[in-house]
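User: For my dataset I need records formatted as: sequence, then structure tokens, nothing else. Please produce one.
Assistant:
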Amino acid sequence: MTTITFPVPSTTTSRFAVAATNVPNDLTGLLNRSPGPYHAHIAGRLGTPQLQVARGDLARLRWDPGRVKAARPEDRSLARAFGDAAEFAVVTAFTPITDQPRGAQVARAAAHAVADATGGIAADLITGHVLTPSTTEKTHFVLADQWLGDVLPPFRANGRCTAAEPELDPEGVNGCACVRLRTRGLRRFGLPELQIGEVACPHDLAALNVLRTAARRLLTDHWSWLATGPAAATRTVPDTVHLTQDDFNDFWGTTSRVHVTLPSPSQVRLSPLTPRLLTLGPPTDFDGTINDWLWNDTRPLGMHDTPHTTPHDLPTAA
């Protein structure tokens, strides 16, 4: 059995920012007065490395607000307003790896509370996306709730790609290799990011759903491993991941997907690109390209299912 090994940090970082017209000086007092299911967690962590909040202006920032983008087309005006703001509150959490996902949830709940109190716009600086406004942080964790930074690129390379649809032309299955997708956010849970590339435009959604489902499977296994209390700074896993319909449903936090009957769990092969970035592809015994794999009848989980049918309304385009 072939394996891969990756580093597991003892502590990970989550960072959120809120852009507002006027950011108050007493952000600690503001958060101590904020209601909600995370109030006790926020109050207990404020002022410790696990939850820090600071006020800053544009001149003193070490990151560029203009690089924060909209994951959904309807949020582009929010991203522009975020980039044009002059005052910010920054929420940072340095969290033990065994305190995830709660540590990240508490930090994001604090950012939402500041945004609600100031009429501001919250953003996740790990994914680089603005967050959906007026969102109350859920007490249960769902990876699809804007944790993964996973969006499709502009369709067909902004109109430059002329690859045929496979239904109309068999050559369209491998008509281009325009699409490369990468997660942004798994590192806050102590996992490498995932990437899938050399994908033809007609298979972009299938590739995205493979990426999402593999991320959920790896995260589930990772938390089970952490629960055993390992002292190692590295983790070794098989290079072949078995994906099931449950993994696809777990990503969305729902069982109300269209059920797809599979002859056996689908296999995805992991390859290390760097210590903190793994690539995804078809299993070693698959005879064909990544696009053949995404298109043929054995592709994982009915991966052309559309995210528009989910209750979480994740984006479909950058």
